[in-house]
Every structure is written in C-alpha cells, then in structure tokens.
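Q: Protein A?
A:
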Amino acid sequence: MASSAVLSRLPSLRYFVEVAREGSFRAAADKVNIAPSAVSKQIKNLEETLGVELFIRGRGRAGLELTEAGEILLHRCTSVINELVVAREELQELHGIQRGHLRLGVNEALATDLLPGILNNLHRNYPNLKYTIMVENTPDMLARLRDGDIEIGLGYNIPMTGEFEILATLKRRTYLITPRNHPLAKRQRVKLEEITGEKFIFPDPSLTLHQMLHDAFIRSGVDVRPIMTTNSFTLLRQMVENGMGVSMVIGRFLQRRTEQIAFIEITDAAIDRKALSCCRIAGRTPSISSAAFSAGIKALFAQYGG
C-alpha cells in the first residue's frame, strides 16, 4: 500500500486501536466522543482497504475478538503510537522546552523502597519532567509494556525472551524481617529451620515471592503459622514492625524511611537470589526521559550489593 493511502487511514487506525482495547464499538465511541456507527464504519473501511477481517464479531456479551490479522495490526499500531510519543518529546527538546513524560511500571515493593530516591534525583535534574507511575505485579506490568501504556518496566521475574530488552539486572538477597525486639533480630544470618512455628505474614499468591516461599518451606520441611496474607508490602512491613509476625522480602533498599524492623539474611540453598530487572519492549525507540531513568537505574545497580 502506498504511503499516502496509509496516511489517509490514520483516523481509522486510531479507532481500531480503541475498539481493540475497549472490546466494543460503543465503549470506543464513548472514549473518542463520536457515534458508534461512525466507529463501525471506519473499521469496515479499514478492513476493506487492507483486505482482511480485523475482528470476530460475536453476539451478546461475547463482544469483539481480534482475528490473527487484527493482532498483527494492533502490535504494529502500538509500536507506531510509541514512536509518535517519542517524536513529540524529541521535537519539544529541539525547541528548548526540555519537557518530557516518563511512563513507568514498577512492582509494589519497589514503589515504596527504591523508586522515591530515583525519582527525587530525576526531578532535581529534570524539573519539568512529568511522570505516570503504574504499580503492578509483573504480568500486568508486562501487559502494559506491550500495549504501550508504559515505556519502562522495573520488577522481578522478567522473562528472558527476545520480546524484552533488559537494560539492567541486579541479583538480590532474600531477608527474614522481624520486629527489633525479636530473638533473631540481632543475627546477621539465619536458616529457614530456625523460623519453624513462627507467626508468618505471607505475600499474596498473585505475587512471585509467595510461590517462592511456599516451595522453599516445602523443600526445607519448615512449618510456619500463617497469620495474614496481603498484596501490599507496605502493610506487610508495617505489621511486622507492629509485632504481628515475621515475614520475608527480597532486598532492602528502604531509601524512603528507616523502619523499626530487622533484616536477617536467609542462607539456605532452597532460597534463590531473585533478579530485579529494568526492561522495555525490544526494538522501540527510547524517549529521552526513559533513557535518563534507565541510566539512573544502571548507576544504582552498579554500586548496590543486593
């Protein structure tokens, strides 16, 4: 197809992306503030131009599903949208505005420990930079990366595939955390068997750490007393600090504030050192703001021991 024909279809492509994301013509129409019939017509024109069907049009609540051709087009459109965002930032830089937008996804534990210090440094160097920070578990964060909602992801258990470009990686130790007055609090290291019978605060099953601890306890024959489960590491640490029980976390940045909890390294071979990774979608041009963020992460990882 000639480039002029592609450019003439840009409104249709925009409506296609919205329909694919919302799952219906009506929801997409509400989002772009036009009639559903107009959105449907634009999609039909796009399908005729490309010579393919983009959606499987189900009935009732089944809604719309992308065909294989639709999946391919959505992937390419997402890349184009990302490039346009980068181009806009570069044009702003060219005119001396020096204003950008960092779109970042991060695991919840890092949002309270590692991230505030990084953002403070960025804000000092780039005072006009805007931020969109999405706090997600790793699968949801990767989905946002694919959709182009965020540009950089920072989290655990990033798959080492060609889909993602790993910008920096840090292997982190696993720690038992206890109140300051706990009998193990003054120890530097501890084995899993030493926490048998302890009241234990578990991370939620939706989090990678939950399965890691569950498997390690089984391999080591350790039996703890579950007293609470939460998907918030902020609440988990607060409850440990209050003496409700003990727990485990990966790493110990704690740049935001000093908490009244003790960190004791777990030395058992049953506990693997987990990799913290900073990544983006491979092949996409990085914006100036994301390049600055990844440079800050690389510098931090280079000086940090885990």
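Q: Protein B?
A:
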Amino acid sequence: MSTPHRPTAGTGTGAAPKAPESPAVRIPVGTPDRMREVGRTLARLLRPGDLVLLTGALGAGKTTLARGLGEGLGVRGAVTSPTFVIARVHPPLGDGPPLVHVDAYRLGGGLEEMEDLDLDVSLPESVVVVEWGEGRVEELSEDRLHVVIERAAGTAGTAGEDGADRPEDHDVRTVTVTGVGGRWAGADLSALTGAARRGG
C-alpha cells in the first residue's frame, strides 16, 4: 500500500529523482459501454491506497470510465460527475475499499487548495480517483496511475448533464494508462487492452 507523501521543505538541493514508470498501455475505445468496461477491468487491479489521475478534455469520457471503476469495485451509488461537490465518497457494498471520486477542475491552487478534502487521510484505506488531477495532486502519493483519454483529431466532445458522455457519442478515443512508482513497477496492464472489445 502506498503512503501519502509530502516533500519536506528544505530537504535536498536538486530535483527529485524521477519515479519509475510501467510501460504505457494504449487502448482504443469506441463507445461509452466499452469505456465503462475499461474502468471495470482497471478496478480489478486496484487496492486500498491507490491513486488514479484521470486526464482528458471535457466530454472525453473521464466520468464514464470512473463509473466503470465504481461498478468494478462494487461501491454504493452511481458514480456521476462530482463537479459541484468537488468530492464524493462511495462506500463499498462488500469487503472492498471505498471509492473517493474527486473533480479538481475548479481547483487551481494544487494540493494546498485541496487540504480541506482530507484526501491524504482517505487515501490509505480508499481508492482515490481524481478527474483533472494532473499537476494538482501528484504529491499525495509516489505511487499512482495516470489515465489519459484523448479523442481522435477533429472530433468534438458532447456531455450529458452528469458530465458523462452521451450514449450517441461514439467517437473513438485512445486511453493511455501508465503506472508511476514502485507499486506499479513491472505491473502487467495488458489485461486492459481486451476490455474495450468486451464492452457493448
């Protein structure tokens, strides 16, 4: 289990060594159902203490993938965009970890602005998923998964009222998953490549 990490001021004189990364896995995804299946498959690789950063343009499919994560983890309540509450906790229905789903879109000050959310307290026993988290919450943990969703060039995003993709929005995306830190060093993420074919 990774532990929350905050650099200590005044330690060291040079840049911190780059954390090890697992080989990136790229998955073409053509429908929202398949995006959810990627999330469900990814959930099987997660455990308490894991931090997942979701990056992508508005309507790219971040919340759809997070919904699949919630289904795969077996948590209570439908995972929807937490934009207006910033963070939402989904307790487990069984023995698994709770899911903490965060939308950092409106938080521009980085980790300092998120301290009131107590994410560093939640992380050891939860799976924490942060939309728009890149460049804002990396200091929470040396070990994390970066999930980047990119649309094919020239396609525009459409999103429903909950921030997720509309059912008719079937533009192809590429989901790139990279593990950072010792937790993911040498991890086999290849199971994710078949997930997009299993979805509806």
